[in-house]
Each structure stands twice: as structure tokens, then as C-alpha cells.
């Protein structure tokens, strides 16, 4: 399982993870629906006929697929103009309601099912207590707000060494709580960090 924040909650990422046999755990994201209007979840999708049915029982048929991979479904403006729910549905001048559905939308639906699985909410809460703290430390104390080296290979080297050091620091704290003498361990860690700084200066030369 991969626990990710809202920035990674996309159909493409959900598709790739599930195809690779990895369960994605994404957070809840608030629908971007204008207040007082029907949300997308209130339009029923008919997989067999590949269409949407609105709350007023009108059909939104497939129109086209845009370059971003979203299929567009549109209603009949003439029917919508006489619908009692028009004011809650669309503000378009031609009274046409459009809904988009990504070609990999079913993967997002699977991801939502995973999110609602018992126990996964607690797992996501752990992310804030562990992973987010590590990334915050990396940005503020190890210069990860910007790339400092030239070339992907050098940045991968820095990232690997930095997070190895972060893990060693966590290990030292755990050992200390258990009563271990970690003074020598921390001295070795400082030497490793000093070598990283020297490499950083060399890469800038």
C-alpha cells in the first residue's frame, strides 16, 4: 500500500499503482461544486450505455474525449430549458449540462473503496505523524526546497544519503530510549554528515 497526499490523487497515478498491484490510499478531497448546485455524485453513470442520468431523469450522452483524457458527456439543452432543476444544475446560456469522466475513472473508484475500508483512515493519520515530519525536516534542515546539484544522479545521491542520515538519527533516538549508549553512534553520524557537506561543495565546483 502507498499512502499519498491529495496532490497525487489523479486517475493516472491510481491506474499505475493498481496495475502494479499496489493499493493507493488517498485522502478525502472536497468536491469542487458550486454551492447550491448538484454535485457529480448526484448524476448516475450507466456503464452499459456509457451515459449519465441527471436528477431530472434526462440523459447526458458522450460527446468527445479531450486531450487530458476526460470524456465529456452533455445534455440536450432543449430538454434542460424546461427542467424544474435547471437552476440547481447549470448556468450555461444554452442550458447544456456537461460532466467529465476520465478514461481511468474506474481506478479512482477503486481507490475510493480502499479509502473507505475499515482501518485505512487510521493508517492515513499515521502519515501526518511520520512521513510529513520527515519531509518537513528535509526541506527546512537539508535544503530540499530546491535542487542543489546539477544532474539527476547527483540529486538521487543526495536524497539517498540524506534520508539514510535521517533514519539513523531516528534509530539513535530509539536506542537512547532503550538505555543504549549512543554517544559513539552519534559521532559516527556527524562524520557521515560532514562528508555529505564536502561532497556538496565539490559538486558545485
UniProtKB/TrEMBL annotation:
Transposase DDE domain boundaries: 53-172
Top-level taxon: Bacteria
Pfam families: DDE_Tnp_1_6 (PF13751)
Name under which the protein is recorded: Transposase DDE domain protein
Organism listed in the record: Blautia obeum
Amino acid at each position: 500500500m502507498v499512502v499519498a497526499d491529495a496532490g497525487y490523487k489523479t486517475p493516472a497515478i491510481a491506474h499505475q499503482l493498481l496495475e502494479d498491484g499496489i493499493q493507493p490510499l488517498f485522502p478525502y478531497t472536497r468536491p469542487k461544486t458550486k454551492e447550491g448546485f448538484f454535485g457529480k455524485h448526484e448524476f448516475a453513470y450507466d456503464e452499459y450505455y456509457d451515459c449519465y442520468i441527471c436528477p431530472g431523469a434526462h440523459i447526458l450522452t458522450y460527446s468527445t474525449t479531450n486531450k487530458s483524457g476526460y470524456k465529456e458527456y452533455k445534455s440536450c439543452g432543449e430538454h434542460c430549458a424546461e427542467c424544474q432543476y435547471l437552476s440547481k444544475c447549470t448556468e450555461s446560456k444554452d442550458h447544456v449540462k456537461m460532466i467529465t469522466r476520465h478514461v481511468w475513472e474506474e481506478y479512482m473508484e477503486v481507490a475510493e473503496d480502499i479509502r473507505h475500508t475499515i482501518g485505512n483512515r487510521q493508517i492515513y493519520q499515521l502519515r501526518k505523524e511520520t512521513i510529513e515530519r520527515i519531509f518537513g525536516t528535509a526541506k527546512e534542515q537539508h535544503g530540499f526546497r530546491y535542487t542543489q546539484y546539477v544532474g539527476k544522479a547527483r540529486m538521487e545521491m543526495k536524497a539517498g544519503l540524506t534520508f539514510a542520515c535521517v533514519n539513523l538519527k531516528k534509530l539513535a533516538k530509539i536506542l537512547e530510549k532503550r538505555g543504549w549508549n549512543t554517544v559513539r553512534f552519534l559521532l559516527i553520524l556527524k562524520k557521515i554528515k560532514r562528508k555529505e557537506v564536502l561532497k556538496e561543495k565539490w559538486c558545485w565546483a
